[in-house]
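Customer escalation, tier 2.

The customer says the design service returned an amino acid string that "doesn't look like it belongs to this structure." They asked us to rerun it and document both sides in this ticket. The original structure tokens are below, unchanged.
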């Protein structure tokens, strides 16, 4: 499909709801007794998998206009599904639901996704869950399908070998109804939406630094959730605004949760013109972000603690690096190799087609600024990875060129309105 999204981008927009928060609200709604209203959730391919999976487990889940409603009698009324729980392209659904099902003690289920999920490691959640007593088997000991059989779990004390909110959350979901205290320690803090939301639903959970403690056995009660806009989706518009002439975009009601806002720190360090107006919030922080074209962006060097705070934004931040006035580096980001595709390989392969030069490392890369004219008839690959496809569309818009991407349908995974939102912001030159 050809891209025709070049121009000047100006105006105010609201990006779709946060994907991580939407998945968790659907799951916690299903586990809790009562009615959970989820306002402004992300309605996308990935979150609709969790929506459908919760229905298969016996919760009453409906879409009402732009909102979701979950009605449940509580965790002990959920049932074994009579068909495979299909998780599509969603790693979050696959890993979190594995923890949730293991924790229910009485469920037999099989969890399976698309071709990208078939290659994503699940042993990272199954190892700690097995330590808790779960009876789970994987293909080749590592990959989906995930087959879960009933087993009574005990609490766990676990030092996380990788910075992964999905692993942390799977353990916490499994620990919710065990008899005792589950403790998870992280080396670098990953997103904390599960901790915040479990507290709101009545779990006995506390956080001190990078240690989470969850006392199992508390009955959860339904709670309404208002989902802020997804900063990982906003990231594409933030970078687009910084690098395209005369751009001035305001993105309203975006999550500003500090475990997710690494991109804001990077943009500020690069000297990007960005203004934040925080709004009042309990629990999850959110606000408006205004971003303006910044012709003299400085390069960035990221590694360590900041990586989990911007892990999904690294592809689009690489485009920012192309427009900076020096070499940028990304290190400590080996987790990128375990996403929908190996994102280090994919970013380098596709941006190289724009003439960008890289030095690749196992855990990241060095990128030189500048790009060249794309060869005629060059075909770009999207790898069924929404973040790679949107990165390419932004790069093409900033390079004022039209490119052809083999398949861009995966945009629906996290940002179904991406192309129409860009069209809405585009003013003819
Ligand atoms: O917990 C979550 O909602 C997510 C955690 C991250 O994955 P990891 O836990 O694998 O780092 C992130 O990349 C993913 O998009 C969503
Ligand atoms: C990696 C991502 O999601 P998931 O792990 O849920 O597939 C993402 O949204 O970039």
């Amino acid at each position: 499909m050809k891209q025709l999204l070049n121009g000047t981008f100006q105006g105010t927009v609201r990006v779709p709801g946060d994907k991580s928060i939407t998945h968790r609200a659907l799951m916690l709604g299903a586990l809790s007794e009562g009615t959970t209203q989820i306002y402004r959730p992300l309605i996308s391919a990935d979150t609709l998998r969790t929506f459908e999976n919760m229905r298969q487990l016996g919760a009453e889940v409906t879409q009402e206009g732009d909102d979701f409603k979950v009605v449940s009698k509580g965790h002990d009324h959920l049932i074994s599904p009579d068909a495979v729980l299909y998780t599509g392209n969603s790693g979050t659904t696959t890993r979190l639901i594995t923890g949730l099902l293991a924790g229910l003690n009485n469920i037999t289920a099989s969890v399976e996704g698309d071709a990208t999920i078939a290659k994503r490691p699940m042993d990272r959640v199954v190892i700690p869950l097995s330590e808790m007593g779960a009876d789970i088997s994987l293909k080749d000991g590592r990959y989906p399908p995930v087959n879960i059989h009933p087993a009574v779990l005990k609490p766990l004390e676990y030092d996380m070998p990788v910075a992964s909110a999905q692993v942390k959350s799977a353990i916490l979901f499994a620990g919710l109804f065990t008899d005792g205290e589950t403790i998870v320690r992280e080396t670098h803090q990953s997103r904390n939406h599960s901790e915040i939301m479990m507290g709101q639903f009545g779990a006995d959970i506390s956080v001190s630094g990078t240690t989470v403690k969850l006392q199992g056995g508390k009955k959860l009660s339904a709670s309404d959730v208002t989902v802020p806009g997804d900063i990982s989706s906003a990231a594409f518009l933030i970078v687009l605004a910084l690098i395209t002439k005369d751009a001035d975009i305001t993105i309203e009601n975006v999550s500003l949760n500090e475990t997710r806002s690494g991109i804001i720190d990077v943009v500020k360090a690069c000297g990007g013109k960005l203004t934040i107006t925080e709004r009042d919030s309990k629990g999850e922080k959110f606000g408006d972000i205004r971003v303006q074209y910044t012709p003299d962006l400085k390069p960035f060097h990221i590694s360590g603690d900041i990586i989990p705070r911007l892990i999904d934004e690294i592809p689009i931040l690489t485009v920012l690096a192309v427009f900076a006035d020096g070499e940028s580096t990304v290190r400590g980001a080996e987790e990128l190799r375990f996403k929908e595709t190996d994102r280090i390989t994919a970013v380098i392969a596709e941006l190289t087609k724009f003439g960008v030069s890289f030095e690749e490392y196992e855990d990241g890369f060095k990128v030189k600024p500048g790009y060249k004219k794309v060869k005629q008839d060059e075909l770009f690959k999207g790898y069924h990875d929404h973040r790679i496809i949107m990165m390419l569309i932004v790069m093409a818009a900033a390079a004022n060129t039209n490119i052809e991407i083999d398949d861009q349908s995966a945009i629906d995974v996290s940002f179904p309105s991406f192309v129409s939102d860009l069209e809405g912001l585009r003013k003819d030159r």
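Tier 2 assessment: The sequence is consistent with the input. The first strand starts at residue 8 and ends at 14. The mean pLDDT is 96. Sent an explanation to the customer and offered a walkthrough call.
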